[in-house]
Amino acid sequence: MGSFGIGGQQMKTAVIGVGALGASILAKLMNDGIEIEGWSRSGPRKTSLDATVSRSEILISTLSGALTLCQVLDDLDIRGKTIISFSSATRVQTQELNEWVTARGALLIDAKFYGVPAMLGTDYATIFFSGHCTLAVRRLLTVLAPKKIYDLGLSVGQAATLDAAVLAVFYGAMTGFAQGKALCSSAGAASGAVFEKVLLGIFEPHFLSYLSSTIDDRGHLAEGSQQETSNKVHRSALKMLQKFTAELQMDPKLFQESSN
Q1: What is the CATH number of the domain that holds 59?
Q2: How many angstroms separate the CA atoms of 45 and 152, rounded?
Q3: How far, in Å, CA of 19 to CA of 41, rounded?
Q4: Residues 100 and 171 in one domain
Q5: Are 118 and 233 part of one and the same domain?
Q6: Are residues 72 and 124 in the same domain?
């Protein structure tokens, strides 16, 4: 077993929410020798959450939102636990979650992962976090993102803010790309190879390929079965951006789906 505690003592860890990201985190840390278990509300890992929490010192949440995490952990004893939350949430939601966690005697780390689950543990994985990060937590995060891990300081909510900023840039680029493809299509030009070749010097090839497969020639989100999961992620992120812009008293219409 890998050592992630003080003085060589293992700190037991649990992943709360074993979806695509949670399952990948669980598998990566387990393969690295970490003493870890996973919990899910359904499926083969549907076990007693109370027992899972009581056995663990570090809880990694990949649940859908801050409120969901509060609901799941409500009435459980989390005193002395460290919670690493990869949940999608705005800065205000994250700060409220931090108050909720702190009032129960636990510690919250606001963390964000950039990439697809298969990238975990590779040089391409990127994680940034904010909050009081212990050495044990930092070592766990380093296993997941060996080369690109960024500490944004003690103020919980900074990672959520940067997450929204990065998403805004991503969707700004995505909107421009959608408009470009739609323009080429309306002129009868090939909106695939030529258009993409021109932009290869601007965007990373894998990023461009991702946008190409996600947006159809009309500039809309593709609705094929292969894109269903991807589109759900897009829409979830767009809803989060709308909430974040509302917090800043910006116009939420800035981030509407191009398919509307």
Answers
A1: 3.40.50.720
A2: 33
A3: 10
A4: no
A5: no
A6: yes
Which of 11, 40, 14 shows the shortest CA–CA distance to 25? 14
92-139: per-residue pLDDT in tens?
A: 899 999 999 999 999 999 999 988 888 899 988 999 999 999 999 999
Classify residue 256: in a domain, yes or no: no
Classify the C-alpha dihedral 14-83-246-175 as positive or negative.
negative
For 169, the token pair is 């840039």
Whether residue 227 sits in one domain with residue 136: no
- Is residue 29 within 8 A of residue 13, CB to CB? The reply is yes
Q: In what order do the strands lie in the sheet with 148-151?
A: 36-39, 13-16, 58-61, 82-85, 107-114, 126-130, 148-151
Q: Any bridge partners for residue 221, and if so which?
A: 215
| First vs last C-alpha separation in the chain | 51
Domain containing 228: what range? 161-248
- Cβ atoms of 137 and 108 closer than 8 Å: no
Residue partners of 153: CB distance under 8 A and separation at least 6: 130
pTM (predicted TM-score): 0.72
CA 85: distance to chain centroid? 9
Work out the number of other CB atoms within 10 angstroms of the CB of residue 44: 8
d(CA 64, CA 71): 12
More confident residue, 218 or 100: 100
C-alpha pair distances (Å), 121 with each of 95, 137, 147: 28, 15, 9
Q: How many distinct helices (H) and strands (E) make up the chain?
A: 9, 7
Task: Tell me whether residue 255 is in a domain.
Answer: no
